TrEMBL record:
Pfam families named among the record's database cross-references: Pirin, Pirin_C
Keyword Magnesium: no
Binding site for Fe cation: H55, H57, H99, E101
Similarity-based family: Belongs to the pirin family.
Protein name: Pirin family protein
Gene Ontology MF annotations: metal ion binding
Gene3D superfamilies with a match to the protein in the record: Jelly Rolls
Cofactor notes: Binds 1 Fe cation per subunit.
Amino acid sequence: MTDDLTLGAREVPLGGLRGLTVHRTLPQKGFPTVGAWCFVDHFGPTVHPMAVLPHPHTGLQTVTWPIAGEIRHRDSLGSDVVLKPGELNLMTSGDGVSHSEFSVGDLDAPMHGIQLWVALPSGVREGAAGFEHHPDLPVAEGDGWTAKVLLGELGGAVSPATTYTPIVGAELKVAAGLSTIPLRADFEHALLAVDGPVVVDGIEVDHRELRYLAPGRTQVGVQVPTGTTLLLIGGEPFDEELVMWWNFIGRSHDDIVLARDDWQAAAERFGHVEGHDGKVIPAPPLPDVRLTPRRRSVT
C-alpha cells in the first residue's frame, strides 16, 4: 500500500519547444496513476495562447477544464466547440481519435486551466471514440467549501459526464480557514494546489504540487489563509497495466508501435480534423528500447 505523499510539478512545453509551458504532476516515475487518472497538466496563468495542432490519442479520455480563457476544440468526429471557464470538455479516444486546441477570444487575456487524462479499461479502449461538452455541472457544498463536480460524485452531486471506472473529479473553492472535504474510503485521492499553497491534513503543499491520499479516508482537512482553488481527483485503484508513450495508452509495446505507425501513415482510425490545411503534429521517434508498463514503485 502506498502511503500519502506529495508529488512535485515539472515544466513541459505543450505543442513544441515554443509552445505553452505546463506544469505536470502526473504521471511520474514510479507513480503513474491516481485511480484511473493518469495525466495532470496545469497551465497558466499566462498570456501565452494555446496553439496545439491536430494530434492523436488512444486508450484514454481527455478532460479539459479552463479556469480563464476560451479554447476552441475541433476533432476527427466533427466536433467544433468553444470551451469557456466553468464548462467541461470530455473526449473519449477509444481505439483512435485526433483533435486540436487553440485559444480564441481575447488573446491578450490570461489563460489558465487544467488538462487531465483518464485511462480507459479494456473493453472500452478498443471501442469507438466520442465527445461530450457539458456547459452546466452540478455543485456540491459544505462548511467553507463548494465544488463543481466534473466527473463522478461528490457530496451528493453527480456529474452527467460519462465514466468507465469508479472515479471522481471536482474543482473545489475553499474559503479561508479550515474546511473538511468528504472522501470515499475505497478511493485513492489527490489534491492539486491550483492557486497557491495549502495545508492538507497538517502537511504543507506548495503551489502546483499534488498531494496523494491513500485509500481508507472518509474525509480530508484543508487549510488556507485566503480563499483558493483546489482540484480533487480520485478513484478505485486502477489495476490494469498501462504502457504510456506520447499521446497513446496501450497494454504493450506493440500497441504503441502500431498506433504511431498508423498516425504517421494518416490511417483511417484517427480520422481528420478540419480547418488546419492538413497540418498535424508528427509523432516523435520511438526510443531504442522496448516500452514496458508503468508500475507504482513509490511508497
